[in-house]
Amino acid sequence: MIVGDPFSRPLLAVLDENPGHWDLSSLVMIISSGAMWSEPVKERLLAHHPAMILADAFSSSEASAWHVRLGRRASAKTASFTLGPTSRC
What we know:
Strand order of the largest sheet: 1-2-3
Order of helices and strands: HEHEE
Helix content: 25-40%
Shape: elongated
Largest sheet: 3 strands, mixed
Number of strands: 3
Low-confidence stretches: none
């Protein structure tokens, strides 16, 4: 689990500078919580490992419920979440 773009950008800088240096084939999923991934960052991550699942998680320390949006290359867009009928603001 990482914090979206703020953690992904330094990771991508290293991956981009050293293409093919690390075997990422065993990496199945990265979850982002605390900050959203932007579409360009997701696309860059998937360029290094297209089969990887990128999951956007939305929750708070006060809530027990999590909302997760999973996506692969076809859905690298920035996630969006909608309040459910029992949600209160």
